[in-house]
Amino acid sequence: MSLDDRTLRYYGAVCETGSIRSAAEQLGLAPSAVSRTIAALERRLQTTLLERSARGVRPTEAGELLLRFAKDRAHLEELLTENLDEHRGLRRGRVRVAAGEGFIDDLVEHGLNSFLADYPGVSVELSTGGTDEIRDLLLADEVDLALALHTTPHRELTVVRQAPQPLHVICAPDHPLAGLDEVAPQRLADEPATVLPARFGLRALTDQIQRTHGVLLDIRLVSNSIHAMTGFVLAGLGITLLPRFAVGRHLAGRRLRAIPLAVAERDRVRAQLLTRAGRTPSFAAARLLEHCSEQLDSLNTR
Prior knowledge:
The chain is of the alpha/beta class and 302 residues long. The chain has ten helices and twelve strands. This is LysR family transcriptional regulator.
């Protein structure tokens, strides 16, 4: 079976945009041309590839298989180009990375800066998001590698490297909890706090700790921005629960304190470097995976 690149490109555009008309606009074609191509593809494969409704179109189960095939083929072609460039000594490429915001300082300072200096022909596209968003980007092959905390195990995800990152109570140096060696969960009751939104793995763990130990934080700020959460704590408005590396610069500058949380759940938190199972990394992605594994504080317990 031979499927040409043009047909697969049209089909991918329809799946991405959710409609024939939007795909045609993106491709600079008449909607009828895109529609005819998709109809011919369905006849050729003898199966329905798209479900049509008033809200647009979406891939059927067979359509999802074709979409994965199209993405895999595009990746293999990119992989071949990069490997040939490597063979010729050009060392070029592109790496797409997704990371939780708590990783950004560590990733940029200890990972990307030195990597980009060593590989001037490689570019990196960096996205941030919640744990669920990062997982979905990786499973959809929208990114090549990901850094996340407390991810739910998935058979299509490969953990390249991981390290324990226990939860700590993060507070200002003059906070009443700052002088403790360890914080019992009962001490969290009614403490003003800032937390991540529900789509983040750490928020799920924070909620679980409250349920397990029968305590309720006084949640004053919900934000997907570690910067905003840190500002809340720096202002003396309350506490948050995070691994140490997420606020490493502030701890080094003694602007914040991190006190271990005395609960079993804290030891379940893992910082993880992830790829999609079965996907061969490009030359550039493989080098960045190695570099991050060795250099990131969040992935090492040194």
